[in-house]
Structure prediction request, 462 residues.
Amino acid sequence: ADGKATLEAIGQYWASLEQAPVRPEVEPGAIDRSMPREAPEHAMAFPEALKLITSLVEPGLVGWQSPRWHAFWPANGGPASLFGDMLSAGYGQQGMLWATSPACTEVEARVVDWLRILLGLPDRFSIDGPGGGVIQDSASSATLLGMLAARERAGEGSVREDGVGGQQWVSYVSDLAHSSFERAAMIAGLGRRSVRKVPTNAQLGLDSNILQQMIQEDRAKGYKPFFIGATIGTTACGSADDLSAIGPIAEKEKLWLHVDAAMNGAAALCPEYRSMHHGVEFADSWCFNPHKWLPVHFDCDVFWVANRNDLISAMSVNPEYLRNDATEEGGVIDYRDWQVPLGRRFRALKLWLTLYTEGADHLRATIRKHISMSQSLAEQLRGLNIDVLEPQTFGLVAFAAQDDIATEQLQRRINRSRKTWLTHAEIQGRRWIRVAVGAWRTEANHMETLYEDISEALKNGE
Prediction:
């Protein structure tokens, strides 16, 4: 195998992103039809195989790394992160236990605590106290784990042995919360309908007054409230739930408070954006995705808990074949008890290399640049014949035409050229077009081109 040629192929792909369409023009099944029906019987030389695979997949790649990427949320990845993943694969560590890879375990525990400090999160989440952090694949897994830990704590340790019983368990999220809360409830055996969606207020955050009322009504019906999922940066519009209003309710009602800050949590690297932390002292768990707004490759979510024993109690099973002296003696972290899978790879290497080679100051500067660019775009769009959603938050701008049909038609005209990709969301009954600003390669000239594309699409619809 030729590592140099592989890196050159990646470099060529990255260089092509400036001009390449964000969405490939490929029909469903076209890539599959170009592949043989069976695996090769005989070996092929690596240079020939590399040429074959790049020619096969690159026409069907979506421009997640493009500077003109504005759909969903970004999925960034820089050179240091790439090399960190290469080291992880090369070292081939399986870090399910401290004993199976002391380096994998201890580097991860310390690196995620560096991030905790950089984000301004409280000491209760520190690995040096009763809490701690762990790398998950995504915020969806973090949400599931938070819900499982909450369920076990609310069941006073009985659920892991006897199941949920006949009670109707209920959790609460805003009506703009991510669908992963519903999936978590489905996987946890509680059912999708157990997730109660609380209406949002004028600031598009969860309405704490309605939340309190819903909890009281559910208790009166004999239901078992156990979990609140708060969001810092909804996918629809980037809005945030007010932890200072929700937290006291969670504490009073003895409900687990999980905070999903998958995208916007990264903004807390900048001290001026840490108002999101008001009330975080009430949180039992908190997560964000470095693979969204930092130059860290997917998959990488960091999930903190205030009391790691709550999580371990929900997840730990200790068969004889995993017993070892280090675990039995205590004093070590066995991350297999902090996640759903047993095995785990050395994800912390890409975080370590990114933090060392980018530096916190450069990470902050890029986030500030993205926020400034999104604010500038919002101001420009206000001068057009469209509505811009308020409040405009961090790296997301949402806009709409006079009605849903006109908005959908406008979105289709913008996306038709494939030069960018704008997705949409429904917010309080209305369709809005979203612009996510957070791709690591995006600069002011790309934002100006986007504005021109939106303006031109508007004119073409008049």
Q: What stands out?
A: Residues 360-381 form the longest helix (22 residues). The mean pLDDT is 95.
